[in-house]
Structures
1.
Amino acid sequence: MHVLQACAEIYPLLKTGGLADVAGALPAALGAQGADVRVLLPGFPAILDGLESPAQVAEWVSPFDPAPVRLLYGRLRGCDCSGYVVDAPQFYRRPGGPYADEHHHPYPDNHLRFALLGWVAARLAQNLDPYWRAEVVHAHDWHAALAPAYLHAEADRLGHRLAASIYTVHNLAYQGTFAAHHFGELALPARYFQVHGLEFHGQISFMKGGLYYADRLTTVSPTYADEIQAPEQGCGLDGLLRDRAASLSGVLNGVDDAVWNPAQDSLIPHRYDARRLVGKARCKAALQAELGLAEDPDAPLFCVVSRLAEQKGLALVQQVLPRITAQGGQFALLGSGDPGMEAAFRSAAQAQPKAIAVRIGYDETFAHRLIAGSDLILVPSRFEPCGLTQLYGLRYGTVPLVRRVGGLADTVVDTTLESLDHDATGFVFDDFSTDALEAAIRRAFALWRRPGRRREDWQLVQRRGMATRHDWGLAAEQYMGIYSQALT
Ligand code: ADP
């Protein structure tokens, strides 16, 4: 089965969030299931730099710009897969980020930049590469969401289907909406701009194009698949998602064992596993020293690794910080995003440098040290399609404390008297409120300090989490099933 994965980021070459982790791990996992997988990416500088021995597959003028576009093919360094890269310097070779400039302003031609990605994906199901033709086109997030629409339009024109199309929503909140007057620039039939198509409240929605035209839809957890069919989390698309419920599945993301495994992780100072946790204690001591925190093994260290965005619920964390430190806990954060939130966390750290440490920025290596050295990881999201950091926490014996929402609800089992000896792996709270978060934190302290138990109960939960497996093999198997269904 020839499978094309169309997406805008891939770990380790270019990453702004969890999408890159998925794109970096899924191809090899599908390959292990027997699929012949290639990735399609825009030629951002970091992607082109990582393309080894590129061969030119085609050169042409696209409908989106008079300058020629080249399609290159090669191995993607560090990705364990090969891929096509759309080399369109007029669109992709820019000094800012992949979606926005240095000042965080979205590029004004994003509709063209990402229409091109979807358009090339659809062409790879035809004859763009004479030696390889996609039978399944799997498009990820709004950036690649027009691929199913272009495939649909071509199928209409030719009278037969070119490839099965799958569209995966990694986050429904980022939709790729553009002013209606751009529709004529997208090289799609005029009739596609309507309620039964790409039109969304008078605008063009790339996300809706994916949701409307793909043969099969997936999102990254079963609970999120349910949540997005209701108005609260449906971002205005819940009606369409309900209509398409029979074609929608939730497939949980996995953890890439080659990147996130405390027994083999070269980015952490001491390696460990569930049987021998002494390495984790050493990682904690090293982290406390690195961050200038009190070097106290008995102070439970809470961490956060996150984009600082409203979605992540970190305003709640800011409010409960005094409660954590008053009970003798410590807190360390790695994140960047909202400037107000960055400033608030920074000043909390300045006020209590022995108990709170904050690093603003994006630092893949430090993320490993922070997760390995902490005792708990906080993920109190307002909504969370899957969430990866709680999965890394589970793997690293860093007990997750999460809100019961989306993929967090699917992956962490709350600790109660009943679940402690059975299936508890973390702490879970329901209401999006400081009271509910605080109550969960109190329960975490209670387990940490349970009298007479010398932390045995804590380690029970910790070790059980480390033993749970969210591997990509399982996810790949599910995707293969969905591809097969879409092909029939
Ligand atoms: P989202 O995609 O919504 O940002 P996920 O939990 O799905 O959230 O994925 C986030 C990914 O980005 C994880 O791999 C996490 O470790 C990483 N990450 C987030 N913020 C940072 C940061 N400041 N530095 C390093 N890695 C980060």
Note: Residues 17-18, 21, 305-307, 334-336, 362-364, 367, 386-389 surround adenosine-5'-diphosphate (CB under 6 Å).
2.
Amino acid sequence: MKLEAWLVTDVGVVREHNEDSAYMEPANGFFIVADGMGGHAAGEVASAMAVDTVRKTLEAARKEIETFKRAPTDTGRRGIVQLLQSAVLSAHQAVFQRGQHEADKAGMGTTLDVVLIAGPEAFVAHVGDSRTYLVRDGRSSQITTDHTVAEVLVIEGKLTIEEAQVSPLRTILVNAIGVSADVGVEMAHVTLKRGDRLLLCSDGLHDYFPIEEEIAQKLSTDAPGDALKDMVELAKTRGGHDNITGVAVQVTDVIEAVPDRLDGEMTQPVDLPGANPFASDEPTETAVLDAAGTPQVAAPAAPPPAADETPSDAPSDVASEGRATQPMRPVPGGESAPAPAAPQAGGAASPPAPPAADLMSDTTLDTEPVPAADELAGKPAAASPPAPPADGADGADGADRTGESGDATGEPRDADAAPADAARVRAGKHDR
Ligand code: CA
């Protein structure tokens, strides 16, 4: 597998600090983007801690990754998934513990997207509202879902996709690294092909590219690095209200032999035998695991509109093609909904995945009922605390993020109101 990659991060045109952190080691196949939140520079600390923790964890596992690349097996694949989960949970614990012990870091948190490419396989771990896209054959597909209140309300039928695209709740996270005791880790798996591009980015970038076709157009050029720079400049031209970070990866060649059983696969849920009710009839799923490895299922999410644009800026077909997401448990509020009972992860084979064409058409999938939606009903609204901030000097996103983490911070509920969640986190760590 030959990869080329580019990383661009920019403070934007409004913020004084860049709270995004990113890192990549193309030679070792890993790529990380984190978008921090929290006052007094805590956001920068959180995102940097998360990136650093994941980097160290992956570097320490280089041997295991190399072994898998040489001889990809289901056991090895399961090991890689657990490695990524473990890396993300370690990052979560590091940020959460520091937030607990340092007053000026209280409530800090971060999004986290990690892509690990081993042989022709890309493993994705995701928390929050940064995104990972796959661009293939001139088309773009969002691999991750947004863990936001607006997405939860869309799932519950309380907001239309159009309403969600302009709702201030679209920037309030229901799941983040380090903010509360509990966190859910969304996992995805993609079998790469030559010419594929991946884009990891913070919302400061994807907010200004609500139409996936534009992302595909940009990154499908022969020079994805230049295209990424161009996208960052465009994000600034279009408002630049937030920090802007993107990592673009190009698969220049696929050298390793792909096991026969993976031929034609694009995306498959990982490591969740018997746990995924949609595995057999839904073209793509994203496996979502909470700290204990309890899987949930997510359909891909619809892109939000650019923050400073009116809905009319987004063509209606974006909305109609929008995809629903399976929300994580809400972070705000002390009543975190427990994950639905489900078998622990840990079985062997991944369910068969659909042909590539199915994934690429997944933007037109109807919303599937999602198991946890009912369970989550009402929670985000009840829990969502921060009055939607006015569109102020800091920009809507910044205000929201600040409001969210500030609120999460101000109440000790995360530590003492959710012992079950804390136990689950510990159990998850012990499992690994
Ligand atoms: Ca951001």
Note: Residues 35, 202-204, 242-243, 397 surround calcium ion (CB under 6 Å).
